[in-house]
Amino acid sequence: MLAQIYWDNKAYKQASHGHQDALLGPTVPLRDFNRACKSNPNLRLEDDFAFGSQADAAEFVAYLMEKVREMDAATFDTMFVLEEENSWTCQYCSTTHTKREPLVEGLVHVDTSQFEDETLEKEGPSEGLPLTTYIGRYFNTRQEMKCDSAQCKDSGGPGDQFIKGLPYTKRIARAPNVLAIKMQRAWSKYDPGKDLSKARPRNKIFERIDFEEYLSLGQYTTNGETVLYRLEGVVAHQGPSLDSGHYISAVRAFDGHEFQSLNDSKFLRRHWNGTMEEMRSPASERTHADFRNLDFDASPDMCFQPYILIYSRVIL
């Protein structure tokens, strides 16, 4: 969304000279975003970065979200925070547990690894299914839960023991203006003997995951309201693992209809004639000696896999 302004020089100049209609459309929240950032102009972000080392793009997005929220939490929450209503029912006492939880990180993590149905153990990399399938799994999943209700104790429930494989539903209680989705691109075999808090998955998921320009989430809301999002940008990764490689992005052009790729500060161009394929299969030209031009015959680790999707809400 922001790229439409900061990468399109003509629109930026128009806005700078008072033509605010240049910012109309999905970029309207940019005005509030700028106001929030200007409220703390002395914030030094660069002190938190280790220059010259590979970093995860999703972690960077989460970091930026945290810093922006400190400036103006109310504006930030309206723009980026999806509030969920989560519920599950105990199979022993039939008590339904419900709670609301805002995703203040500003990212919705969609897991594209395979899971065994009941054990919740990771089985392997993605099957390469459409994004809508993985989103359905996100909102209707299984969790390991513990029931602490008095009814459960009276009915001879498991007490302090967790119950595996319980149906667990998530529903959207409040939809943000901007929806950032992280598609899981790494997996590791579950090992009960490991301290998972210290483990980091090393295997990259290369499978293509198709996604559409428009994403409807109305079926996952608490009240059945229409919630429709339009794709504005994609961050993609190229490399054999998430520990190394290169990130580029693809964004919707300012005309609102076509798409283009961005590679650092040097390239703003179209590789697939400006079609939606710019988003699904971002590509890049050579930028340094060990980075080659990509084509259809390139091996998976030499291609870019979409990693983060940025959607803006369509007001109907």
UniProtKB/TrEMBL annotation:
<dbReference type="GO" id="GO:0006508">
    <property type="term" value="P:proteolysis"/>
</dbReference>
<dbReference type="GO" id="GO:0005829">
    <property type="term" value="C:cytosol"/>
</dbReference>
<comment type="similarity">
    <text>Belongs to the peptidase C19 family.</text>
</comment>
<dbReference type="GO" id="GO:0042981">
    <property type="term" value="P:regulation of apoptotic process"/>
</dbReference>
<keyword id="KW-0788">Thiol protease</keyword>
<keyword id="KW-0645">Protease</keyword>
<protein>
    <recommendedName>
        <fullName>ubiquitinyl hydrolase 1</fullName>
        <ecNumber>3.4.19.12</ecNumber>
    </recommendedName>
</protein>
<dbReference type="InterPro" id="IPR001394">
    <property type="entry name" value="Peptidase_C19_UCH"/>
</dbReference>
<dbReference type="InterPro" id="IPR028889">
    <property type="entry name" value="USP"/>
</dbReference>
<dbReference type="Pfam" id="PF00443">
    <property type="entry name" value="UCH"/>
</dbReference>
<dbReference type="GO" id="GO:0005634">
    <property type="term" value="C:nucleus"/>
</dbReference>
<dbReference type="InterPro" id="IPR018200">
    <property type="entry name" value="USP_CS"/>
</dbReference>
<dbReference type="GO" id="GO:0004843">
    <property type="term" value="F:cysteine-type deubiquitinase activity"/>
</dbReference>
<feature type="domain" description="USP">
    <location>
        <begin position="1"/>
        <end position="314"/>
    </location>
</feature>
<dbReference type="InterPro" id="IPR038765">
    <property type="entry name" value="Papain-like_cys_pep_sf"/>
</dbReference>
<keyword id="KW-0833">Ubl conjugation pathway</keyword>
<dbReference type="GO" id="GO:0016579">
    <property type="term" value="P:protein deubiquitination"/>
</dbReference>
<dbReference type="InterPro" id="IPR050164">
    <property type="entry name" value="Peptidase_C19"/>
</dbReference>
<keyword id="KW-0378">Hydrolase</keyword>
